[in-house]
User: Fold these one by one.
Assistant:
Number 1:
Amino acid sequence: MSTTTMQSLSEVIRERHSVRKYDPNYKISRDEIEAILDEAILAPSSSNLQPWSFIVIDDEETKKELRLIANNQEQVETASAVIAVLGDTEMYKNVERVYESSHQAGFIDEQSMKRVIESTNNTYPHASFETRANIASFDAGLVSMQLMLIAKAKGYDTVTMGGFDKQKFAEKFNISKRNIPIVLIAIGKAATPAYKTTRLPLKEKIEFI
């Protein structure tokens, strides 16, 4: 990776801050949101099972209803859209499609494909719901962070929201029992500068052994 690319990435990371005040008149097209998500899903995932899906809420009336579910957070209504990231607790059911696709693309040979599929089917279905939910939540975190950095690189602002009634959300949007709401991400154009924060010194958080 070139120095220029690394500098650009570093700038995006340092310039990204959580924004809670959005321009309600600025709209991001659905095509552009799809383009952001299309890059975001290149994030790593456990066994490449990609246990994520998204609901993009950009309808004005629906955002007003969602605001009530999300503890009346203003950004839900004023952002261009809210992207709900869901975690699939039965992600192992994707294994055949995932690895057959990799085989067809020439990334894995047939023997290895069959071995991974068999191993996944012998392991994941027997894991507890809590274990699978933790895996889905972890991977949802990875794709969410990638989403926010891509959005910032394209000139947009975001904020994550974990403070919402997940049961009411699931009921409102008819979420299947295998999928669990993980986080809401507001995306749009900032109306005011982001509230900046500091970090504790790295030296207090790192140990080389």
Number 2:
Amino acid sequence: MTQAAKVNGRLPGTLRGWAVDRPGPIARAAPGAGPLVRVERPMPVPGPGQVLVETEACGVCRTDLHLAEGDLPPHREATIPGHEIVGRVVAAGPGATRFALGERIGVAWLRGTCGVCRYCRAGRENLCPSSVYTGWDADGGFADHAVVPEDYAYRLPGDADPAHLAPLLCAGIIGYRALRRSALPRGGRLGIYGFGASAHLAAQVALAEGATVHVLTRSAEARALALELGAASAAGAYDRPPEPLDSAILFAPVGDLVPVALEALDRSGTLAVAGIHLSDIPALDYRRHLFQERDLRSVTSNTRTDGEEFLALAARIGLRVTVTPYPLNEADQALTDLSADHVNGAAVLIP
């Protein structure tokens, strides 16, 4: 019996999407010559413990941009990016029984871990040396279908708008982890540097938990959104917040903002850097930036526990997800707009 014959469900014939061909700056590429190229491939067959998902929506993350532009070294050639996938299960591989055919699930960045290393055993699977990622180590959601391990997928409500669910799967989850890493005390003062997809969700969680939020970002449109969502203030990225901060999160991939954010912290404050890529950090002055027990922390991926906690919290508090939709055939334009900070909230591809 062939592998395809063992699969439960219908297998369509052709997958259509976009792959990273030659990583490079997307803003300077000539029309049609950017790092993303259209691809058509045989439909992938789900293996043991995997499911085939028909994509309903896929969020466009800044990590996808880093992969396309070469800030993240490719792990394989011609990978299809995208790791905020909402879709329906259309086929299941051998032993995959967690989800029913037709059920809606979500696929996020973390795709697999070893389960046995000291990090996995300690509940810190995001630090697993053998971890693999959707849209980096395996094809992701910039396509009409994707194969995913069922153990790393999330069950999603079947009656919600898929475009508004997609950003929760990375922007939301990593923003939630960054918020927790920032050690924000209850009722504390939080500074958020950069205000895109992840930041506008993390800000709402912080506000729901009683924080005062100050947003610092270069985009006037993003500042307006921040105030609309309930931020106490919104100013330029290099401006001083109106009061000392207990915690700060740096979402913008700009190393120059690290000393700026550290200097805005009160005594014992914590800065969490949320991005997978950051430009070079300038030299820090110990007394100005780190003395008085200020902490500087990075944020690395997420655990599945983070994902489950955040998705439950998002449903409970009713997060407002601001999206800019693009048809799947305009994925290259979505990345170009993201690079230029022309996306308000989160960009989402709709097949």
Number 3:
Amino acid sequence: MFGYYLQLGLRSLRRNPMLTALMIVVIGVGVAASMTTYAVFRATSGDPIPQKSSQLYIAQVDNYGPESPGAEPLRWLTWRDSMALMQARQAKRQTALYPIGVSVLSDDPSKLAYPVRGYAVFTDMFPMFDVPFLYGGPWSAEDDEARARVVVIGKDLNDRVFGGVNSVGREIDLDGTNFRVVGVTARWDARPRFFDLDVQKGFGDLGDLYMPFARSIADQQPTQGGNTCNLPSGPGWDNFIRSECVFVSFWAELPDVASADRYLRFLHDYSNEQRSAGRFRWDPNVRLRNVMEWLSYRRVVPPEARMSLVIASAFLLICLVNTIGLLLAKFMRRAPEIGVRRALGASRRAIYAQFLIEAASVGLAGGLLGIVLTGVGMMGIGLVFDPAIAKLAHMNLSLLLLTVAVALVSTLIAAFYPTWRASQVQPAWQLKSN
């Protein structure tokens, strides 16, 4: 019977080509608008490290006091606090980090130096964040302690400097000093870059280099991210890092809720110790947030993405309301046909099935048109959103299937009332009036 109902539905659609085309266009436009904005929202609100996001926590310790904006600790830690947390070793893995910038110099004097963004980190960062390696691996804990001149570089930098070959063991000139390459990472698309949200909310330059934290501090590498000074730091690098200026992020890997609770108590006790020592003059004010909580706190999802999704969803709803009216007009025009079928023994259930299948064929056609229009919408995303965000939204198989599914389900929902009205046609009245 499905094939028979489908044949009847297609025949009916061909009898009213203009009305059919109008319904398909309404559904296609509404679905395309919602899917285009959903693609942006999905790209910006997704979990950047789903396998471990509930185990990775950023620590915050308030060194600013009650005047801190919003009564929240600042986003970063001081160098002295981050080192104290590192030395306490209260987490399974942990790393202090901050973004840096270096100049890569070529052996070829005809080539100019070019800047590269990177991070000063501890070796625990690589297994903590599941950083994939193409060649080699992280440096050792001994290298951290020794302030070794070693470095891990990204694939793009390796391609540019070493032609893409295995460069482990070779040297790279950074700011006029040679560093030994110990590893080359594969392309790592953790978007947003949750541990560095100060560049375009984590959607900007991902960085292509990792240097031992202690080596970076010893080389007086200034931060390329955010920093705030509670009190004047005085002149010079040593005064800056030993001051109350905050510029270091601190991440800890805590495998379960109990570990997170213990670590939060540790932060509270540490802040209390600083108060007892006279450094802080306020009650402990600490925070411990996992990856998704941190992204929510920092409001990483652009407000225009949320607003666009709401507006597009409302537009889709309006399109469905129009579709309900069009289907109702189309189905009720066939009341005489329905009356004859009912008089010949067709049940209300059969009428319902016939018209739902007819509506589903309209929804399927609208979904196919929606795919085309969604592709067109993807090309125009850059006109509304920041280019760094716009390039993250793209068509893939899941979005294609979702577009068709939304069109099909939406049309079926819209068809429930018109189909119900059609199934309620009284055959006696239709036969008498006709």
Number 4:
Amino acid sequence: MNRKIVITAAVLGLISIVLGAFGAHALKKVLTVEQLVSFETGVRYQMYHALFLLFVGTTQFLTEKAKKYVYYTALTGVILFSGSIFLLATQEISQINFRFLGPVTPIGGVFLISSWLLLAVHVCKQKTHN
């Protein structure tokens, strides 16, 4: 599971860098300031959670079962939160109406918050002397 989490973290981080550069250079010319700010928010939160998953995949503070819960909760959150933001921010240039995804963004946010809460709860439950 650790390997899977670290690989996912690396892929999410890589995609964040690519999308951030794409937003800063190519999209800057075609998006409004508000759309670009939204897009950058999606990139930023994806990178935060790539680093979060890197920690989860390498820490000794969590059991394998706890890592699995945190991993899937965070990954679902990134897909729903950042993914919906990317699609909503670029819908004018894609000519696809993604407005139906509006409610998905906060649901993704709840998953991201939950992944941090799960991390805190599981670390607190550990009976270590460190």
